[in-house]
Amino acid sequence: MKSNHAHPSRRARALRITGLVAVATIALAGCAAGDDSSDAGSAGGELTFSNWQFLEDGKGPIIWDAVKGYTGPDDNVELTKVEIPFANYADKLSTELGAGGGPDVMVLQDSQFASLVDAGVLEPLDDIADELGDSLNNTNEAGVFDGGQYGFNWERPTYSTVIYNKDIFAELGLEVPTTFDEFLTTAKTIKDELGIAGWAGRHQTAEIDGWTLEMANWIYGFGGELSDGKKLTIDKAENVEAVEAFLETFASGVAPIGDDASTFRAKFGQGQVGMLFENSGVATTITSNPDNAVNGQNMGAAPLPLANPGSNSQLIIAVNANSDNKEAAKDFVRWVLGEEGQTAIRAGLGASAMATDVEPDAAFLEANPWATQFLEAAKTSKSTLVEGFETESKVVWREVLTAVEALRVNGGDVKSKLAEVQESLEAELG
């Protein structure tokens, strides 16, 4: 992850948007207290670990079971989970960290991670990077900011994959689509023949974070990008084509309007949706639910039916700079990144890329042959962080998706609308 050497006014705007306007000031005093406790060498007692995944069906209990037995090198650490729903996870953590509190260790999305590092509330972890060296793969570059290591890859679920119901495809004699035109035709066939959704996806700013990940599939898939690393490129031709294709898909009637992600994912698991553009974590959750009609054997996975790879959801494990138990927190991160920890949590992370190249269990791959596609896609999928505008990524994506939602609801010319967004963001961010 590259740092954003932006004009101070841009950086201040980013902090306001992420709810961290007071963090940098408050955290300075908190960091001083945290440093004192670290110098004292405290490495025992309660250690709090925050991750919204603990609340996910199927996956959450597996992850907690994998880590809950950690007791530290001196067998004097008690790990306590902090459960916060994904919908308000980022806001709650920002508020707590801004007040000098929060969990000792946390899993973060890369967009929030960038803002928290920029605000000075995450602990530098360069010593751990130096210790572990070559055992870590290049996914851990996502935890580098301004030349320092502030986190490591907890999980990289790639969205760069279409999952589909093999039973439906077999019943209708369908081939897996490889282009957008084939995709739309296939989705229409499923809708027309079976009366169910041919495809489903997020499409409302009420789910802004998740929709960012999904919309990035379309932008990247059509060869687009939101910046060239130095300036924004919102209205470039490839972005216009991507948005037009997205809107055409919803206008065709193959996708339900109004369903949120939890709803259409549940429908897919029940055999009521033909295809999704999904991430490896969700695929694992769907196929591990014994009540679902879709399982590891009848769910297929293939590259996106677009010309280029799509996005990934980079999750980063980091340490609170204000922690009263910083040394224990850092040791837990060491354990997570070691062979024992990586092997333990691999069971819950399914087909996602991890901090090391630990392979999924052979039995898991046999039971879930779809997983290999996600592992392969992780190598080429891209972060949703806007290059050169990392700490303002949420601002940029919100403006873009607000425009796309307006186009879906009210219609209009895509190129003109994206040009307006380009002009507005240039004025706002410089």
Query: Which CATH class of the largest domain applies here?
Result: Alpha Beta
What is the distance, rounded to the nearest whole angstrom, between the alpha carbons of the first and last residues? 21 Å
H/E element order:
HHEHEHEHHEEEEHHEHHHEHEEHHHHHH
Annotated CATH architecture of the largest domain: 3-Layer(aba) Sandwich
Q: Give the CA-based shape.
A: globular
Count of DSSP E strands?
11
The value of Rg in angstroms is 22 Å
CATH topology of the largest domain: D-Maltodextrin-Binding Protein, domain 2
The domain count comes to 2
What profile does the largest beta sheet have?
Answer: 5 strands, mixed
Give the overall pLDDT as a whole number: 89
The CATH homologous superfamily of the largest domain is termed Periplasmic binding protein-like II
The low-confidence parts are 2-42
**Count of separate DSSP helical elements:** 18
| Proportion of residues in β-strands | 5-15%
Coarse structural class = alpha/beta
Spatial sequence of strands, sheet with the most strands: 2-1-3-11-6
Question: Approximately how much helix is present in the residues?
Answer: 40-55%
Could you list some keywords that capture this structure?
D-Maltodextrin-Binding Protein, domain 2, 18 helices, disordered N terminus, 11 strands, single chain, five-stranded mixed beta sheet, 430 residues, alpha/beta, four-stranded mixed beta sheet
What can you tell me about this protein's structure?
- The protein has 430 residues and is an alpha/beta fold.
- It folds into two domains: 8-157 and 313-357, D-Maltodextrin-Binding Protein, domain 2, CATH 3.40.190.10; 161-311 and 385-429, 3-Layer(aba) Sandwich (D-Maltodextrin-Binding Protein, domain 2), CATH 3.40.190.
- It is built from 18 helices and eleven strands.
- The protein has helices at 8-17, 23-39, 59-67, 86-98, 110-119, 126-132, 166-172, 180-194, 208-221, 237-251, 261-269, 280-288, 326-337, 339-349, 362-367, 371-377, 393-410, 414-429, and strands at 45-50, 77-82, 105-109, 144-145, 148-149, 152-155, 161-165, 197-200, 273-277, 299-303, 315-319.
- The protein has a five-stranded mixed β-sheet. It has a four-stranded mixed β-sheet with strand order 8-9-7-10.
- β4 (144-145) and β5 form a beta hairpin.
- α3 packs antiparallel against α14, α9 packs across α10 and α17 (393-410) packs antiparallel against α18 (414-429).
- The radius of gyration is 22 Å and the shape is globular.
- The protein starts with 7 loop residues before the first helix and ends with a helix.
